[in-house]
Design brief:
The chain has 18 helices and ten strands. The chain has a single domain, classed as Aldolase class I (TIM Barrel). The protein is about 55% helix and about 10% strand. β5, α9 and β6 form a beta-alpha-beta unit. With about 375 residues, the protein is an alpha/beta fold. The strands form two sheets. The protein has an eight-stranded parallel beta sheet with strand order 3-2-9-8-7-6-5-4. Strands 1-10 form a two-stranded antiparallel ribbon.
Length: about 375
């Protein structure tokens, strides 16, 4: 049964009343300097920010608001990487300051600003650990959260970074098993930290579970099968019935796993010491198919102890027409059956292989804009230096 909420002028506030925090997947200096970011906290109930190389590429390339800082870096004879970090770190620190009130008022539940270690390190455990610790030390903000990709090498790093008392956003999670592995990596890190006698209640983490990219990939596979000549009407109906539903079903199964992990003896022992749960964070929430609702990854996944990180256009759409209800634990049996149906002979989609491809592609989609940003930034440096 869906738990309805009282009408609200802002559905985001109604969502947050049900225990889900809304963060924004966007950050740029003009948002900070114009006061718009602070205003979003007041007017739309924004509780945090996530960033990634693609976001910073869009923010910095072609935006003159960064030119004076770039010029200062040139005069200080900083390297390309040093100039890049000076720009990004300043934005992250200023955003942390803007959200510090949210962090304090929520007792360190929200108000976090996420920054990703270089995506080129996704397969390098030791360098990921080193960079995560360096980022945390340089930024020196209690509400900064270091993003680490959920690769096998990354999850080893997650345990060590959590054990160092650093907040972590584990990103690029697609499969149910990758989420489960992430949850145990967090628990292992807290156990190591607790063994030192440190206060583990000061550490926070989210597990960023991706959505729309899954449906886009699965739907493309289904469309190829639907285009085959001579398939029966029954098969067509079965294939059509799966389209646009796998990501939400997968997320509901992840939340079920989360609830089960929270009942484990290992977690209960940490909870007794004040540990915070590692919340599931719904990512990649902009709907790729215009035939689907632009807020389907919001409406269907509201639930306690979760985060949904939305791009600005989805935030606006949600404020306009989200249908708020606590649905994360509804129709779970149907979700499990839907995922199982991918193995039917008429469907025959290898979900594990799909998820592995999505992880590999996700890393590429972070590396490419990072490389493009560095190239464009070098061009700006050259132009400014020559002026």
């Amino acid at each position: 049964m869906t738990i309805a909420t009282k009408p609200s002028a802002n559905p985001i506030l109604a969502i947050e009343a049900l225990g889900q925090s809304i963060w924004m997947d966007n950050l740029a200096r003009d948002l900070i300097e114009s006061g718009e970011l602070a205003q979003l906290i007041e007017t739309k109930g924004l509780l945090g920010i996530t960033s990634n190389p693609a976001i910073f590429e869009k923010a910095i390339v072609g935006n003159k608001v960064y030119d004076s800082a770039i010029d200062a870096g040139i005069k200080a004879k900083k390297s390309l990487m040093e100039i890049y970090e000076s720009l990004v770190f300043e934005d992250i620190c200023n955003a942390c300051d803007i959200f510090r009130g949210v962090y304090d008022q929520s007792n360190a539940l929200d108000g976090y600003i996420s920054i990703e270690v270089p995506p080129t390190l996704a397969a390098n455990t030791s360098d990921t650990i080193t960079e995560a610790k360096r980022y945390n030390k340089v930024l020196a903000k209690p509400n900064v959260m270091i993003k680490i990709p959920g690769t096998p090498e990354g999850l080893v790093a997650v345990t060590e970074v959590i054990a160092a008392g650093i907040n972590v956003n584990v990103t690029l999670l697609f499969s149910l098993q990758s989420y489960i592995d992430t949850a145990w990596a967090y628990i292992a890190g807290l156990e190591k930290l607790a063994a030192t006698g440190a206060d583990i209640s000061k550490v926070a983490s989210v597990a960023s579970f991706f959505l729309s990219r899954i449906d886009a990939n699965i739907d493309a596979q289904l469309d190829k099968k639907l285009a085959v000549a001579g398939i029966s009407n029954a098969t067509k109906t079965k294939l059509e019935g799966i389209k646009g539903k796998v990501a939400i079903a997968n997320a509901k199964m992840a939340y079920k796993a989360y609830k089960e992990i929270c009942e484990s003896d290992r977690w209960k022992a940490l909870e007794a010491k004040g540990a915070k749960v590692q919340r599931l964070l719904w990512a990649s929430t902009s709907t790729k198919n215009p035939a689907y609702s632009d807020v389907m990854y919001v409406d269907e996944l509201v639930g306690a102890d979760t985060v949904n990180t939305l791009p600005p256009q989805t935030i606006d759409a949600c404020v306009d027409h989200c249908d708020v209800g606590d649905r994360i634990e509804t129709n779970v049996d149907e979700a499990i059956a839907l995922i199982a149906s991918l193995k039917d002979s008429d469907v025959n989609i290898d979900l594990d292989a799909t998820m592995a491809d999505l992880l590999e592609d996700g890393i590429v989609k972070f590396v490419q804009p990072f490389d493009a940003l560095m190239k464009s930034l070098q061009g700006k440096i050259d132009a400014i230096a020559a002026a």
